[in-house]
Write a structure and sequence with these properties.
With 382 residues, the protein is mainly alpha-helical. The chain folds into three domains: 27-173, Orthogonal Bundle (Hypothetical protein af1432); 185-310, no CATH class; 313-376, no CATH class. It is built from 17 helices and no strands.
């Protein structure tokens, strides 16, 4: 039973390339299935969040992160009587455009592409969904529903600033109403992303020894949860303490989001999804108190984890590797694999650079390391 303000699958605005409807699945279920079966989604298994893959196999990857976001988004959507399948599809697709080696790889590609329009992972996600995935006989991309594409494009909110080239081109032929809020399901997916990465980065940071449980005293909300668990379970093994505390943190954040969102919905009393899009504020949100807790946690992770010298060393190496690969392929497109080589040679300088960026962005961490070895180690004969 969906609420009146939910995105109803039987009222979907359809797909860019019209297709017959499925007799057994809603449009949003088909969207989710296409994303899960895509090559870009499978590659997320070996694209890391903060650490390059060889630091350890237990840390989150883009794939495990996306699955965690999808699970949280589904749970919240069910509590709010929203369409769970749409929220899940948006959550699963939101990171498809990430490069190998996380944001370090993205920054390196953006620098190399500065003369050709730059590189943004959100823009790359749209390229994947509309062009780069080539699996279907009738169209390039995945031909997702309007609602799913709107949610992916605007999962961080209305786009009032400069719009990326790929999205601008798409919007000219298929108006995604970029200046309006996305549907409620996309708003849920965006904050589920915040809940997932903030809490799971605590886990990864503790596991890597970048900070300790005692250091979390800098974040009162987090410290209080850990203290609550320690008081209830004295002598609990550290591993269980961390897991139980993070589980409770996720639950508290999700519960707060649901209560605040219900309050906003009650005040607006929207009769349909269009009223959600036209509202003067997002409908899905944390309370002011929880938003401040979230800000403090993010600040702590920035200081203690993302800018830790051990992480900086790894990301510096990764950025150099990505830049080196780009410059070689761009100067010598004849070193690209055959299909990519043909595309790179059959275009101008800007087009060639974009082909090279697409090729590198699609690499996993592991594949990028192997390519670098093949190209720069004279002892490698593969």
């Amino acid at each position: 039973m969906l609420a009146a303000y939910a995105t109803h699958p039987d009222r979907s605005r359809g797909r860019l390339v019209p297709e017959p409807e499925s007799a057994t699945r809603t449009p949003f279920q088909r969207d989710r299935d296409r994303i899960v079966h895509s090559g870009a989604f499978r590659k997320l298994q070996y694209k890391t969040q903060v650490f390059v893959f060889h630091v350890g196999d237990y840390y989150r990857t883009r794939l495990t992160h996306s699955l965690e976001v999808a699970q949280i988004a589904r749970s919240i959507s069910r509590s709010l009587s929203l369409d769970e399948d749409l929220a899940e599809a948006i959550a699963l697709a939101h990171d498809l455009g990430h490069t190998p080696f996380g944001h370090a790889g993205e920054r390196a590609l953006d620098a190399e592409m500065a003369a050709y329009g730059g590189f943004q992972h959100n823009d790359q996600t749209i390229r994947i969904l509309t062009t780069l995935e080539q699996r279907y006989a009738d169209f390039d991309g995945l031909n997702l529903s309007w609602e799913c594409m709107e949610g992916v494009a605007k999962h961080n909110g209305p786009m009032t600033d400069a719009v990326s080239p790929t999205l601008a081109d798409l919007n000219e032929i298929w108006d995604l109403e970029l200046g309006a809020h996305p549907g409620a399901e996309a708003q849920v997916a965006a904050l589920a992303d915040d809940i997932a990465y903030n809490n799971h980065d605590i886990d990864d940071g503790l596991r890597a020894g970048l900070f300790t449980v005692d250091d979390l005293a800098e974040v009162p909300f987090v410290a209080a949860i850990f203290s609550e668990v320690q008081s209830k379970y004295p002598g609990l093994h550290r591993r269980r303490l961390v897991h139980e505390s993070i589980r409770r943190l996720i639950n508290r954040m999700a519960a707060d989001l649901i209560v605040e969102t219900q309050s906003r919905l009650s005040a607006l009393n929207p009769e349909n999804i269009e009223e959600i899009r036209r509202a003067d504020q997002p409908m899905v949100a944390f309370s002011s108190g929880m938003a401040e807790n979230n800000r403090q946690l993010r600040s702590f992770l920035m200081r203690r984890m993302y800018r830790h010298y051990k992480v900086n060393r790894e990301t510096a190496k990764a950025a150099r590797l990505v830049g080196t690969l780009f410059r070689l392929f761009n100067e010598r497109p004849d070193t690209l694999p055959t299909d990519w080589q043909e595309a790179a040679l059959d275009t101008d300088d800007g087009g060639r650079a974009r082909v090279v960026a697409d090729y590198i962005a699609g690499m996993t961490d592991r594949y990028a390391l192997l390519e670098h070895q093949r190209l720069f180690d004279l002892r490698d004969r593969h």
